[in-house]
């Protein structure tokens, strides 16, 4: 049962210990001064809320209370009792007393009674002044409600006008966007018409460019044909001037791969630029021979001998 022991309590920021009422101990060998006080065990007769920390205390909660019997408080000869309890959260003192007139309890201080809708308010005898004050308060409340209703209507009208203005602005923006889109489409259509009108001139330019390309291609073909004819004539002259050399070389090797001579010089002069470049590359080789592209195997270096490692002779 140790979990039920309370080790600390809540103290609100505005807690003032000096405001607490200290109980005076019962004097020895003397009669008690003031009203009779005794400790009793009771349950909360009503639901209430602490005014200091806001803690709710429900009806039927048990407390250890101090019961006070004030001799000067009576109603039609019926004794009125006061009870002092502590809030379960902030330990604030709550005082309530009996009410023999209404057969109920009244909160004196420290708490506020919760609203109980099932309790019917009883008729209270009021004077003429109190009745006038109540009527004036009710009239003021009615006027305030009317003014509040009027203010709400004005606010609603203002909101309606603002919404209508926003809708008009949105419609105007949509109209402007539509007009701009229509103008843009019209400009695009005009541009297409302009392009269509200017297309014949472009066709003439393309035709001229095509004719120019065909003329350039024909000139290039004629130049290549003339160069080929000159090369054939040079080869024929070279073969007729040195017949023994061509016979001695054989069919495997062409005649223009022999030693350089006057015939080779005439041949180089009559060939085109590309043929002269290829012939010069071939004739730069010694004796005018064709370079060999045969793979040459490089002898491997024996690294073991360089490192001083002696291999054992093979037994096979």
TrEMBL record:
Please tell me whether the keyword Nucleus is annotated for this protein: yes
Give the record's keywords alphabetically.
Coiled coil, Metal-binding, mRNA processing, mRNA splicing, Nucleus, Spliceosome, Zinc
Write out the annotated subcellular location.
Answer: Nucleus
Enumerate the residue ranges of region (Disordered): 1-35, 191-298
Name any one Pfam family assigned in the record. Saf4_Yju2
Where does this protein have compositionally biased stretches of type Low complexity?
219-229, 270-281
Q: Which residues participate in Zn(2+) binding?
A: 50, 53, 87, 90
Coiled-coil regions in this chain? 132-173
The protein's predominant localisation is: nucleus
Q: State whether keyword Metal-binding applies.
A: yes
Give the matching InterPro entries: Saf4/Yju2, Yju2
Q: Which HAMAP family does the annotation name?
A: YJU2
What does this protein do, in the record's words?
Part of the spliceosome which catalyzes two sequential transesterification reactions, first the excision of the non-coding intron from pre-mRNA and then the ligation of the coding exons to form the mature mRNA. Plays a role in stabilizing the structure of the spliceosome catalytic core and docking of the branch helix into the active site, producing 5'-exon and lariat intron-3'-intermediates.
Q: Which family is this protein grouped under?
A: Belongs to the CWC16 family. YJU2 subfamily.
PANTHER family per record? SPLICING FACTOR YJU2
What is annotated about its quaternary structure and interactions? Component of the spliceosome. Present in the activated B complex, the catalytically activated B* complex which catalyzes the branching, the catalytic step 1 C complex catalyzing the exon ligation, and the postcatalytic P complex containing the ligated exons (mRNA) and the excised lariat intron.
By what name is this protein known? Splicing factor YJU2
Q: What gene, per UniProt, encodes this protein? A: cwf16
């Amino acid at each position: 049962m140790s979990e039920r022991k309370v080790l600390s309590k809540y103290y609100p920021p505005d807690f003032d210990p000096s405001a607490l009422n200290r109980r005076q101990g019962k004097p020895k060998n003397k009669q008690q001064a003031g009203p009779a006080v005794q400790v009793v065990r009771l349950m909360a007769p009503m639901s209430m809320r602490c005014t200091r920390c806001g803690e709710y205390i429900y009806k039927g909660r048990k407390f250890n209370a101090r019961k006070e019997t004030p001799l000067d408080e009576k109603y039609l000869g019926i004794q009125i009792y006061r009870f002092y309890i502590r809030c379960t959260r902030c330990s604030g003192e709550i005082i309530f007393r009996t009410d023999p007139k209404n057969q109920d309890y009244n909160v004196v201080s420290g708490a506020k009674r919760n609203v109980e809708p099932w309790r019917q308010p009883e008729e209270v005898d009021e004077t003429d002044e109190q009745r006038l004050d109540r009527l004036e308060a009710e009239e003021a409340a009615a006027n305030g409600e009317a003014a509040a209703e009027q203010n709400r209507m004005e606010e609603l009208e203002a909101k309606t006008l603002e919404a209508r203005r926003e809708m008009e602005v949105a419609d105007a923006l949509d109209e402007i966007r539509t007009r701009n889109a229509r103008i843009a489409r019209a400009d695009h259509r005009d541009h297409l018409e302009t392009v269509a009108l200017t297309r014949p001139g472009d066709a003439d330019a393309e035709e001229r460019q095509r004719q120019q390309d065909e003329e350039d291609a024909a000139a290039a073909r004629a130049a290549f044909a003339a160069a080929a004819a000159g090369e054939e004539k040079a080869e024929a002259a070279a073969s007729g001037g040195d017949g023994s050399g061509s016979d001695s070389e054989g069919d495997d090797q062409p005649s223009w791969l022999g030693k350089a001579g006057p015939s080779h010089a005439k041949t180089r002069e009559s060939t085109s630029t590309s043929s002269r470049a290829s012939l010069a590359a071939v004739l730069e080789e010694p004796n005018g021979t064709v370079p060999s592209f045969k793979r040459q195997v490089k002898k491997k270096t024996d690294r073991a001998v360089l490192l001083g490692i002696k291999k054992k002779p093979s037994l096979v």
